[in-house]
């Protein structure tokens, strides 16, 4: 994906639109990284009581108050209504733009085709100890203002776009410091008390909040309700299978854990994330032949092009280092060493690689 179109390219102008509340720990970091990319910064404050507004004033005077009504989409739509430039970029306060991505965004700004209605970008969610991206997904991040795209959803909102969507290699990196971990669950619980009928998407994200709070039985109930609608986005269906497997694993229910791992294969060809789950299950059960089969399968799959969440570890080093363990246990030390070296190509400085190398050296000689 180049991130650019074959249409007529022209330099664009960008409004940055953000909603914030009590973000003094991160807002300066965010704005300092993006200020040279955008032409306008619009900040909608939903009730800060700290120094957020004072810090923002170093970057813009376009600061607006919005009474918080437990509705993220409403706040974001208000922020978009204040934009004046040709395109709108949205960020959260705990997002950052790394130097390479800043260069990519400046390049995109100068050469984006005029017929582009929206631009999707990677969203980096987690990094390995080696500094490589271990978890990412893709989101619509830059949108043409004249299209009047709207945000939908009180919680875990999304922007509904259509038309010509360009895929960029630029990434936004999520780098949270602290947040109100109970906020989203409180909103969902209140909406439920008010008698609101949840959409399939709400069922899925409500289940996620319950799972994050270790309310596994309730999470299972809502993941199952979500899947039963048969209306979910395929990547959310796959995600629900994985999270159901994790919930049942926490409850020591291996039968249902395996059921939902295999159910994921109904929605798409096997993903490395699920092959690694199966490998880990059989490894823990000392069923080494089965563990080897699934980890080996994970190394042979073609990584899908998807907007969904991807665990890069499962598509790179993880199955190889687990195969090192498996082959070592069955006495196939050369194969164990081979897979340890393959893992080392992805995580060369990881201490596990050196440990395995030293352990296998004496066995091989």
From TrEMBL:
It comes from the Bacteria. SUPFAM superfamilies: Nucleotide-diphospho-sugar transferases, TPR-like. One of its GO terms (molecular function) is transferase activity. Residues 15-114 form the Glycosyltransferase 2-like domain. Keywords: Transferase. It holds the Pfam family Glycos_transf_2. This is Glycosyl transferase family 2. It comes from Dendrosporobacter quercicolus. The lineage of its organism: Bacteria, Bacillati, Bacillota, Negativicutes, Selenomonadales.
């Amino acid at each position: 994906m180049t991130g650019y179109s074959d249409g007529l390219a022209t330099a664009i102008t960008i409004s940055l639109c953000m909603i914030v509340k009590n973000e003094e720990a991160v807002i300066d970091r965010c704005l300092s990284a993006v200020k040279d990319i955008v032409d306008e910064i619009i900040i909608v404050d939903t009730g800060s009581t700290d120094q957020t507004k004072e810090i923002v004033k170093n970057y813009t005077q376009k600061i607006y108050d919005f009474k918080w009504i437990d509705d993220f989409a409403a706040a974001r739509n208000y922020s978009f209504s204040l934009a004046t430039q040709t395109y709108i970029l949205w960020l959260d306060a705990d997002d950052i733009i790394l130097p390479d991505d800043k260069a990519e965004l400046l390049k995109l700004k100068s050469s984006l085709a005029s017929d582009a209605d929206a631009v999707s970008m990677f969203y980096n969610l987690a990094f390995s100890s080696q500094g490589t991206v271990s978890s990412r997904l893709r989101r619509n991040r830059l949108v043409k203002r004249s299209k009047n795209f709207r945000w939908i959803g009180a919680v875990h909102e999304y922007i509904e776009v259509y038309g010509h969507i360009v895929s960029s290699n630029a990434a936004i990196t999520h780098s949270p410091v602290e947040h109100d971990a109970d906020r989203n669950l409180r909103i969902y619980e209140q909406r439920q008390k008010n008698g609101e009928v949840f959409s399939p998407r709400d069922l899925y994200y409500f289940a996620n909040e319950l799972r994050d709070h270790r309310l596994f039985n309730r999470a299972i109930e809502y993941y199952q309700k979500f899947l039963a609608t048969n209306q979910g986005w395929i990547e959310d269906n796959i995600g629900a299978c994985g999270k159901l497997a994790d919930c049942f694993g926490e409850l020591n229910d291996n039968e249902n854990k395996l059921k939902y791992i295999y159910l994921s294969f109904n929605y798409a060809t096997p993903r490395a994330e699920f092959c690694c789950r199966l490998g880990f299950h059989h490894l823990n059960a000392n069923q080494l032949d089965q563990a080897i089969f699934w980890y080996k399968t994970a190394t042979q799959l073609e990584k899908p092009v998807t907007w969904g969440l991807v665990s890069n570890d499962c598509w790179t080093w993880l199955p190889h280092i687990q195969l090192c363990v498996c082959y070592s246990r069955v006495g196939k030390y050369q194969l164990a060493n081979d897979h340890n070296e393959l893992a080392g190509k992805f995580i060369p400085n990881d201490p596990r690689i050196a440990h395995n190398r030293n352990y296998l050296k004496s066995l091989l000689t």
